[in-house]
Design brief:
Layout: H1 2-24, H2 28-92, H3 98-116, H4 121-128, H5 130-133, E1 138-143, H6 149-152, H7 155-173, E2 185-193, E3 196-203, H8 208-221, E4 228-232, E5 239-245
Parallel strand pairs: 1-2
Antiparallel strand pairs: 2-3, 3-5, 4-5
Length: 248
């Protein structure tokens, strides 16, 4: 931040100094030199800011690429584990256990497919990479069949809804306690009910007092505008619900 202010500050000081000199030295040649100096200062400022912006974009792109690579690595590791278990059952002749293993793989594939069809890239990437970015809570995502948020919500509402989901998960991470050595479990259900998209959160070891605290923190710290509504979900006291109106 300090370096960002140095260039504009130097330009302002130089401009003031030149204006003072212009007041005392009234010469056409000086005016021409003054204009040239100001033009050079302005051009230099633009070049420096463009380089800074390009460097920031590069760093952001590299960060996203690293996160995507780590996420793909985790998914590959999980699939390899499932295949090794399946291969082990075949080698040991435990064919009766193959059905459960295959069903588990099918369920995971179906869950990943539903996430990919949500239609909001930032939300899809967040849910896919959640395990890589967060190791403090276990997230179980349940999505209604054929749910596509990108088509159901206006772009601005979709952005606010995504931010609300991310913020709710972050708040659950720091609310309540879990058993020693066990990750707390948070269930997220996404569905369309009538003319609304609804996200219901339920944490297994979260008490009613925790939910009251969570809702209060929403009201005090997070602003959704008029698009997203947050409320306690009945009848479970440890659940929160987000609602946003559909565009069509």
């Amino acid at each position: 931040m300090k370096h960002r202010l140095m260039m504009p500050g130097a330009a302002v000081l130089l401009s003031v100094a030149l204006l003072v000199l212009m007041y005392f030295l009234r010469s056409p040649v000086f005016y021409a030199l003054l204009g040239l100096c100001l033009l050079l200062v302005f051009a230099g400022y633009i070049i420096v800011e463009q380089r800074k912006a390009a460097e920031e974009r590069k760093q952001l792109l590299e960060s996203v690429q690293r996160m995507a690579a780590a996420t793909l690595g985790h998914h590959r590791h999980d699939w390899m584990n499932e295949l090794q278990i399946l291969y082990g059952y075949i080698q040991l002749g435990k064919y009766d256990k193959l059905k459960d293993c295959v069903e588990r793989i099918k369920e995971r594939m179906a869950a990943d497919s539903k996430i990919s069809r949500l239609g909001i890239p930032s939300l899809v990437f967040y849910l896919y990479s959640f395990r890589e970015m967060n190791g403090s809570i276990q997230l179980d995502v349940q999505i209604q069949e054929d749910l596509t948020l990108g088509e159901a919500l206006a772009p601005q509402d979709a952005e606010q809804f995504t931010e609300a989901i991310m913020e709710t998960i972050r708040l659950y991470q720091y609310t309540g306690r879990s058993s020693w050595g066990e990750l707390p479990k948070l269930r997220l259900e996404l569905s369309r009910l009538g003319g609304e998209i609804v996200a219901v959160f339920e944490r297994e070891d979260c008490t009613a007092a925790d939910s009251d605290t969570l809702l209060q923190r929403y009201l005090e710290e997070w602003k959704y505008g008029n698009a997203v509504t947050v409320e306690l979900a009945d009848p479970a006291p440890n659940s929160l619900r987000l609602r946003v109106a559909c565009a069509n």
